[in-house]
Each structure stands twice: as structure tokens, then as C-alpha cells.
Design brief:
By secondary structure, the chain is an alpha+beta fold. The protein has helices at about 35-40, 45-55, 55-65, 100-105, and strands at about 15-25, 25-35, 70, 85-90. The chain is globular and about 45 Å long.
Length: about 110
């Protein structure tokens, strides 16, 4: 795993995210703006929005690499201020936990 801090599409507010490699087995991604969320927000059905837009990320991660697992405790789709995604690389660890909210709150863009 490697760290990528990519301010995706900030010029049009498409997606705003910051990533941080917190260990050789965990990569965090904090998303504070998401184009998909902006498009689906008009439906005003948070549960359906999360199922349509967020749940496929888990399957996509498993297909990308079977040793990677994605965890989240909150999403923009569910009405929170950010998505707190953690990618876990399980090739060398057997147990993992989702990082605390404090870790995500501390993430800032490198700019």
C-alpha cells in the first residue's frame, strides 16, 4: 500500500479527499465532498443512497485484491460530515480494527 494525497476535482467540488498511510497495513481516506453524494442528495433517502453508492466499494475492494478489506463507520451518504474509510492490508496481519475518529479528525491536506 502507498499513500496518495490527491485533491480530486477540487476545482468543481467533485470530490475532496485526503489520504494517509498510518501503518504499512492501513491506509486512511477521509472524504469531505463527493460528486456521487451531490447527485444523489436530491433523493433524500440516506439508506438507499448508501446502498447504491457506498456498499459497492467493499465488493470492488475484494475484487481488486482479496487480502484488502475496507471499513467505514460513517459516510456522507448517511448524513455525516465525512466518509472515514480505512483500507486494511491483511497479508501480514490477522487482526485489525477501524481507526478512531480522532485519527480521521487529524487528517489535513498537505497544502
Amino acid at each position: 500500500m502507498r499513500k496518495r494525497d490527491i485533491p480530486w476535482n477540487l476545482h468543481d467540488k467533485g470530490q475532496d479527499a485526503v489520504s494517509a498511510l498510518v501503518s504499512e497495513h492501513q491506509l486512511l481516506k477521509k472524504v469531505t465532498a463527493c460528486r456521487t453524494h451531490q447527485v444523489l442528495a436530491s433523493f433524500e433517502d440516506e439508506e438507499a443512497m448508501e446502498i447504491i453508492a457506498c456498499y459497492p466499494d467493499h465488493a470492488s475492494m475484494r475484487r481488486t485484491h482479496p487480502a484488502f478489506v475496507l471499513t467505514r463507520t460513517q459516510t456522507l451518504m448517511a448524513g455525516t460530515d465525512d466518509c472515514d474509510t480505512c483500507f486494511h492490508d491483511l497479508r501480514h496481519v490477522t487482526e485489525f480494527t477501524h481507526p478512531s475518529r480522532d485519527v480521521f479528525e487529524s487528517l489535513q491536506h498537505a497544502n
